[in-house]
Design a protein that fits this description.
Elements lengths: L1 E5 L6 E4 L3 E3 L5 E3 L5 H15 L7 H17 L8 E5 L8 E9 L4 H9 L11 E7 L3 E11 L6 E11 L4 E9 L2 H5 L2 H8 L2 E5 L3
Antiparallel strand pairs: 1-11, 2-5, 3-4, 5-6, 6-10, 7-8, 8-9, 9-10
Helix pairs in contact: 1-2
Length: about 210
């Protein structure tokens, strides 16, 4: 079995647990038996306790907890079988989701990486910015920044994607993020770039 190992900075990133099981009482439980509500409460408290802001209120903790609860309910189903990290540099920030996944490597490498990154997206408002990107563990891949309309209301969204091919594992790795608030993505660009260097793909046979 092939799996991802992401050595992220816990001061900047929050990992959403990937496995949840629904109980007879319609409660979702993680592998550690915490409910989604308990997970959100504990992470919110931890983020505030570890922040540089020494004074905070119960209502601020509750606000972050509710935000995290919405994230855990909303983001994992958007790209199933992905690891989901939230960029959360401060407890007051709006979490930015980042999905990381690996899929079987198929077809021509260059064409496939362009497809995974939407480098030729016909819905882009302007030609996407396509760059080669070399990650420390995954090697050379592509980085694509693009602007596109989300729906019929023409809400502008900025999307950022990376993709690599691991020849040794015969897998393609893709990182996806995006937001209708361009500033939210642009403020995270450096942190996401750093994140790409600590993504590893392992195989049980390693």
């Amino acid at each position: 079995m092939t799996w991802l190992d992401i050595d992220y900075d816990p001061d900047l990133w929050v990992e959403i647990p990937s496995q949840w099981t629904i109980s007879a009482g319609d409660e979702w439980y993680g592998s550690d038996n915490r409910t989604q509500e308990e997970w959100a409460d504990e992470i919110a408290e931890f983020c505030w306790e570890e922040s540089s802001e020494k004074k905070y209120t119960a209502s601020e903790v509750e606000l972050l907890s509710q935000t995290l609860l919405e994230c855990v309910r909303r983001y994992p189903p958007m790209y199933p079988r992905s690891e989901v990290l939230l960029y959360l540099p401060t407890p007051k920030a709006v979490p930015l989701p980042v999905w990381i996944a690996h899929v079987p490597a198929e077809g021509d490498r260059e064409l496939t990486l362009r497809e995974l990154t939407l480098a030729d997206d016909p819905a882009a408002i302007e030609p996407p910015i396509v760059e080669k990107w070399t990650a420390e563990e995954l090697g050379e891949g592509l980085r694509v920044l693009r602007y596109h309309a989300l729906d019929q209301h023409q809400e502008l969204v900025v999307g950022l994607r990376y993709a690599w091919r691991s020849e040794v594992n015969n897998r393609d790795v893709v990182l996806i993020t995006g937001s209708p608030a361009p500033g939210q993505v642009m403020s995270a660009v450096d942190a996401i770039a750093d994140l790409t260097h600590v993504i590893q793909l392992h195989n049980d046979e390693d």
